[in-house]
Every structure is written in C-alpha cells, then in structure tokens.
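Quick start: what a row looks like.
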Amino acid sequence: PAPPITIYLTDEGREFHSAGPGKIQLITTNFITAVQSPESWSAEQDPAGHWGQVVGGFQVSVRFNQTTFTNGQTITASVLLRNVSDKPHVFPEIRYASIPSYGGLAGNFEFVVIGPDEKQIEGKERKHVMMVSGGNFRLISNGTQRKLQLPITDEYKFESVGKYRIQVKTLVDNPAGNKLVPVTSGEAVIEVVK
C-alpha cells in the first residue's frame, strides 16, 4: 500500500467561510481533488512545489505551470501560503498603486529574482497605498493554505535569454516575540528563450 499523505485544503478566497469564532466551514472544495493534487500534499511529498522551511507555523511555495517562456510572454507564479501550525492566523491586506494585480493578500509577497548573469533583478518600486489594520484581514486556518496567481512580469522585467532563479517571501508573526520574521519559499528555476 502507498504511504499515507498529509493534505492541506486550498482556499483561493471562496472555499471557506466562518462558522463562528475559531471555526470554518468548507463550502466548495472538492476533497478528492485535494488528495490528487501535489500542491495540497506535504512539502516532503511535493518536491516540485519548491517549499521553504517552516517559520512561525507557515510555509511558502512557488511554482510555475511551465518552466520555459518566450521573451515578452507573461510569467505567472502560483504562490501558496500554508498554515502548518495548530491554530488559525490572519494576514492584513496590503495594496500597491504601482502594481494593481498585487492587491489584497498578494501585496504581502515579494519575489527574489536572480537573472542569468547571477545578479538580483530589481522590481518596480512598490508604492505603498495602505496596510489595513482594522478590518481587511484574511483568515488562514490551520491545515489550510491560500493560493494566489501572481503575474510577476507585472513587477519584473525578464529581458535576457537564460535561466532565472525565483523565490517568494513574506513576513509572519514570530511566535517567540513581537517582531515579524521572513518566511521564504524554496527556489524555482525558469528559462526565457527567444
């Protein structure tokens, strides 16, 4: 028999709703689909997910639906933020005027892009609009993950032909103190061709 797998249900913003304090109710996620989807498996069972280390009860993954892109093609990353802790956490929504596609929870993530010349590529300046502290928070329940599709070509230029190394990072609460600490994905590699 196959070894048991750990499943993390993916919430893309519409699968769960509150069923009272500290409770969620699953409303549309197909559990069978989650069992069959490698992105819902543990990091050890999903090496293609480029999962980073657990920090503050969270893990981050970055993946691409293909590894080769033509110069000028839109490159979209799938980013997953997984709560592997034993309690739910909330994240504030951050919005940027300079990158409209990075509104809401997506504004919490930043890419690290290393180009073919092994130099880090700078993205567009993030013009901070607001970090809502009173109402716009996203609940990430324990045992679940949030999935975002982020068009990184909205922020970064992939002008040279060659291989690019990409990670994504965000900040989470430090359980040992009052400061935020970074949690970073593993490294994905894509190639841009003519």
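That is the whole record. The radius of gyration is 17 Å. Residues 14-18, 129-135 have pLDDT under 50 and may be disordered.
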